[in-house]
Specification:
Number of helices of chain B: 0
Oligomer: heterodimer
Order of helices and strands of chain A: EEEEEEEEEEE
Distance between the termini of chain B: 40 Å
Mean pLDDT of chain B: 93
Number of strands of chain A: 11
Structural class of chain B: mainly beta
Largest sheet of chain A: 7 strands, mixed
Largest sheet of chain B: 6 strands, mixed
Helix content of chain B: under 10%
Strand content of chain B: over 45%
Low-confidence stretches of chain A: none
Order of helices and strands of chain B: EEEEEEEEEEE
Low-confidence stretches of chain B: none
Chain lengths: 114, 109
């Protein structure tokens, strides 16, 4: 089944403790992206990758890191999480990342930083 | 950068009603996406359209490229249609998507 797999689904952590949210897709998509979703603000892009070893900042990249060492994986790293990073996170992939191709989303990761 | 406006923000309907959700954007686009997010659930793609109209079951999406406007219609609404509906367009030209803030729909039996 074609899918984007995110892990974990839920995570509670403490301020400053490094964490990684994994994202993997099995569709050989070139484009992958991370978003955060907050009440009243909608989906905002954190980072995206148009291909292996190519990553770019989105609208809200501060406090996050990503890497794209292989096509299928695009982990999101929070080196020193803070409470304002409490949010619902989604990973997505697309064949090419342009509007003419459909996007597939992961199931989401609800992160709470205390 | 494209600005996306959705209306209404919240919508409550009785089962069976015809529902319309609107999306306007500021910069010309190659295609527009409609997405659905159920409470506590993930996000699924409903439509991707660049002109005219598309239909899938009780859902119909239309787009007017000249007016920079799209509508999502739900006919004979049902409580299982309760979800957040999100419109998305490219930031500019044919670049990755930016998203509207969503329309929260509640359909009451």
């Amino acid at each position: 089944e074609a899918q984007v797999t995110q892990n974990p689904r839920y995570l509670i952590t403490v301020t400053g403790k490094k964490l990684t949210v994994t994202c993997s897709q099995n569709m050989n998509h070139e484009y992958m992206s991370w978003y955060r979703q907050d009440p009243g603000l909608g989906l905002r892009q954190i980072y995206y990758s148009m291909n292996v070893e190519v990553t770019d900042k989105g609208d809200v990249p501060e406090g996050y890191k990503v890497s794209r060492k292989e096509k299928r994986n695009f982990p999101l790293i929070l080196e020193s999480p803070s409470p304002n990073q409490t949010s619902l996170y989604f990973c997505a992939s697309s064949l090419a990342g342009t509007a003419n191709y459909g996007y597939t989303f992961g199931s989401g990761t609800r992160l709470t930083v205390v | 950068k494209n600005e996306v406006e959705q209306s209404p923000q919240n919508l409550t309907a009785q089962e069976g009603e015809f529902i319309t959700i609107n999306c306007s954007y500021s910069v010309g686009i190659s295609a527009l996406h409609w997405l659905q997010q159920h409470p506590g659930g993930g996000i699924v793609s409903l439509f991707m359209l660049s002109s005219g109209k598309k239909k899938h079951g009780r859902l119909i999406a239309t787009i007017n490229i000249q007016e920079k406007h799209s509508s999502l219609h739900i006919t004979a609404s049902h409580p299982r249609d309760s979800a957040v509906y999100i419109c998305a367009v490219p930031s500019s030209g044919n670049t990755p998507l930016v998203f509207g803030k969503g329309t929260r729909l509640s359909v009451i039996a």
